[in-house]
């Protein structure tokens, strides 16, 4: 249900287009809402007929319809009143249920579609947009839309139905007075839309500011340990205060315009009521208007004009909702920079040969980080990549996973350009253990099983043993059922890294990537992991990025990166003989100066 459009359409049109699969429910809800409003207007009409019966008796409207006896006329009116009230209650129940179900369904569909589209976007998008802003769109803006569908849409339909029905009735029953009663309406409408045109940009600013607050709070909660360690609580409190104050001011500017319109509306409504009261009464005294019609008009004129007092609130809710729709649809319209390929290669057929052919890559607005670089990794081999921070080592991995696409050249797996492979298949071939390990809030077992959701308990334990994690897991309070906390905060850095290695082992991919996979473990654990890697890397293509050269000492080939290129390559022994960059790094890390 994704909506992609190169043109800019009004947000209401976009919303209606998105809701097209539910048009039957939408029309049913609209019809029930209109019916409820018309039935709600029936009692004033019946009161007017009752007055006509009491005053005119045998000459009343019902008498002209064939019901002569006044008591029978009143009985008929009573039955009609009961019927109208019953039908009104039924139509209101049906309309409310339809609107609420529709609101919940659209909210659910829109949130899921928006989140799914968000997952398809490349990493560059997330680097340019804060987590708080995206959370605000996925949560606050979509909830705002639900509130509008639950309440605002019904009010708008009620308003236009009520005004149209009463206006037409006035013109039919007393055209001489009706036009006078309606004189204030053009001024009210003009004022309403003039005010709303000033409100729309202010509500856009309110939604943007809400995203900034969400961003600030999300960052602070994630970094609470850092805040405490630097005793920066007061500083962060001031920053939250400043963001909240900016939100309050933005909202206050919108509210100031909104509430200023209410007193003006009341003046116009009062004028319409007084006009009806005076000129309608004068026509009754002159015998040009019946008492029943006059009573009906005086009673219902407020139903004609009073909804205009709520119009500003309805439009206020509408503008808030449309500001949210613009943000949600703007996210849905974001183009997917890394599209899926159409070719599928069964996992069991992947040998794991990797080739980087003359690739060039630069992050947005930056200089090339890789320049005409080529690399061939034979299937089943283990290579190591070392180099200074920022030399492009991790970028190679991100390109292989297609988090980004190369600007020039191509990357092949088993001779197939990875652009041609379906993304989910490509990433299924690769097990990635990153330096910045991310664990989900859940149990140890759930985090090891992540991505291999059908794995058995025995398989999870076996993967943990290979990653040298089983021993410490068994010592946790609930073992494999221990909750690790948000981002794994209840575990040490080394423990988190070993769980990440176990997760990659359980996936059993033909290509394994270790990006500083032992950076957060102690020497004893590193030695244990080194022993397990001998088993893990058998019959598997392995690319290991490391600052600790001991991690890649036994690789089939080691590549040294500098200045966007590989400047050295060979085995550990060959590179030591060359006495170049690698040899200098080895001497520093070995304590040989």
UniProtKB/TrEMBL annotation:
Residue stretches making up the ABC transmembrane type-1 domain: 27-320
Protein's organism: Myxacorys almedinensis A
SUPFAM superfamilies: ABC transporter transmembrane region (SSF90123), P-loop containing nucleoside triphosphate hydrolases (SSF52540)
Record-annotated ABC transporter domain positions: 354-588
Cellular compartments annotated: Cell membrane
Membrane-spanning ranges: 254-279, 285-306
UniProt keyword Transmembrane helix present: yes
Protein name in UniProt: ATP-binding cassette domain-containing protein
Record lineage: Bacteria, Bacillati, Cyanobacteriota, Cyanophyceae, Leptolyngbyales
């Amino acid at each position: 249900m994704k909506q992609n459009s190169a043109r800019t359409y009004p947000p209401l049109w976009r919303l209606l287009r998105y809701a097209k699969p539910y048009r039957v429910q939408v029309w049913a809800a609209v019809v029930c809402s209109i019916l409820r409003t018309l039935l709600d207007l029936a009692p004033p009409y019946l009161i007017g007929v009752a007055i006509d019966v009491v005053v005119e008796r045998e000459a009343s409207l019902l008498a002209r319809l064939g019901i002569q006896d006044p008591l029978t006329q009143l009985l008929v009116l009573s039955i009609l009143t009961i019927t109208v009230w019953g039908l009104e209650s039924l139509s209101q129940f049906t309309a409310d249920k339809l609107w609420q179900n529709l609101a919940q369904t659209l909210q659910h569909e829109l949130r899921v579609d928006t989140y799914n589209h968000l997952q398809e976007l490349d990493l560059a998008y997330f680097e340019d947009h804060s987590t708080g802003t995206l959370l605000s769109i996925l949560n606050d803006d979509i909830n705002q839309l639900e509130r509008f569908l639950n309440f605002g849409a019904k009010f708008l339909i009620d308003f236009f139905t009520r005004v149209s029905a009463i206006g037409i009735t006035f013109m039919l029953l007393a055209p001489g007075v009706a036009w006078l009663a309606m004189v204030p309406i053009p001024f009210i409408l003009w004022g309403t839309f003039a005010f709303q045109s000033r409100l729309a940009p202010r509500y856009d600013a309110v939604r943007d500011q809400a995203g900034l607050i969400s961003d600030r709070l999300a960052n602070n909660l994630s970094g609470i340990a850092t805040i405490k360690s630097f005793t920066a609580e007061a500083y962060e409190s001031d920053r939250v205060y400043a963001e909240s104050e900016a939100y309050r001011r933005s909202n206050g500017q919108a509210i100031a315009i909104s509430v200023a319109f209410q007193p003006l509306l009341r003046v116009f409504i009062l004028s319409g009521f007084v006009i009806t009261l005076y000129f309608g009464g004068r026509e009754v005294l002159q015998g040009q208007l019946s008492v029943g019609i006059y009573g009906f008009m005086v009673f219902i004129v407020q139903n004609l004009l009073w909804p205009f007092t709520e119009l500003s609130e309805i439009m206020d809710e509408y503008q808030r909702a449309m500001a949210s729709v613009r943000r949600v649809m703007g996210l849905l319209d974001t183009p997917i920079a890394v599209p899926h390929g159409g070719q599928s290669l069964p996992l069991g057929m992947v040998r794991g040969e990797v080739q980087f052919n003359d690739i060039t890559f630069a992050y947005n607005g930056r200089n090339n980080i890789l320049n005409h670089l080529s690399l061939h990794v034979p299937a089943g081999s283990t290579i190591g990549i070392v180099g200074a921070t920022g030399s492009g080592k991790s970028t190679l991995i991100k390109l292989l996973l297609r988090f980004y696409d190369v600007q020039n050249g191509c990357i092949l797996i088993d001779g197939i350009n990875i652009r041609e492979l379906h993304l989910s298949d490509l990433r299924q071939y690769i097990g990635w253990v990153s330096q910045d390990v991310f664990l989900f809030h859940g149990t140890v077992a759930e985090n090891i099983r992540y991505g291999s959701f059908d794995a058995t308990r025995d398989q999870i334990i076996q993967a943990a043993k290979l990653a040298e994690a089983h021993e410490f897991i068994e010592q946790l309070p609930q073992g494999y059922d221990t909750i690790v906390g948000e981002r794994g905060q209840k575990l040490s850095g080394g423990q988190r890294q070993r769980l990440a290695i176990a997760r990659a082992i359980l996936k059993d991919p033909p290509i394994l990537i270790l990006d500083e996979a032992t950076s957060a473990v102690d020497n004893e654990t590193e030695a244990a992991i080194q022993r397990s890697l001998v088993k893990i890397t058998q019959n598997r293509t392995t690319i290991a990025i490391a600052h600790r050269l001991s991690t890649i000492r036994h690789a089939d080939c080691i590549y040294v990166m500098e200045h966007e290129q590989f400047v050295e390559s060979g085995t550990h022994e060959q590179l030591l003989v060359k006495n170049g960059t690698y040899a200098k790094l080895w001497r520093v890390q070995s304590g040989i100066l």
